[in-house]
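#structure-requests
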Amino acid sequence: MVGCLYFRHQTSRERISFLGERQSPLHFAVWGYEEEILHETIIQATNNFNFNNCIGKGGYGIVYRAMLPAGQVVAVKKLHPSREDELMDLKTFRNEIRMLIDIRHRNIVKLYGFCSLIENSFLVYEFIERGSLKMNLSSEEQAMDLDWNRRLNVVKGVANALSYLHHDCSPPIIHRDISSSNVLLDLEYEARVSDFGTARLLMPDSANWTSFAGTFGYTAPELAYTMRVNEKCDVYSFGVVTMEVIMGMHPGDLISSLSASAFSSSSSSQINQHALLKDVIDQRIPLPENGVAEGVVYIIKIAFACLLANPQSRPTMRQVASKLIARWPPLPKSFSAITLEDLMPQTTVTD
């Protein structure tokens, strides 16, 4: 049996400490003060992991809302009970801990603690109030609250998180499952990237071959014929999520219709290239104006570059993040007259 594990979430230099092979309390710091949390406390806070406390489901676990005795709310992801692929679930569970243990970034969900026992294995995260980006875009009311400024900020947040993972972590971390389900929104509509169960360290002296991971509709096309993971796979997924934010729905049909032209070496297809941008973006909110319109156009151009079929032609996330803090360039013509063809990448994004 694997015992409970202990760590403090206070500074980037503090490490995990193992308490040994016994049923010990789970301790962690929450919002600046230390609180002792027993295994039984989490059980009680989730009402024995009652379905009524469920706020989401993942590939290997169910997420519950839990209110601690002091009144603080956390999210608890519990490993699925015994299943045929239990060993794979456990591997994913441990992988998420490994990836999040040293990560400190405002746009990445915080891991407060975890427990590994035969009867219950779970992770304790910060609670992100508004839930997933996918859920917010799927709801008519919530989507209308996501105005263009907020949507641009969500895209910036995801870009900053991925830039940090790819370029500021050593070795670099590849998320491998960037999707609207794995982007959470807090009360201020700030984005948090979550679910690191399939993430991989990009080792410089390794071929980095791996099994398939990701969410259908978000994975890079090259993964259909190669299992070699690199940061450009995340870049492609970021492009899909960005277009989903702008369109208010998954851009699968748009990507498919354009794939034979701008996103591949073929130039035979002209489908949808002449569609007006104003007819493609989310119709549930008013058209963007002035500087916001410039931001929407520029971000779509970046997203299209991220969706290029050739991975080497896609920008890096550092390049993307740096572009998103720059001043938006002026529109070449009125927003209502811009077509998708106007936004097709001519060259790759450069520093």
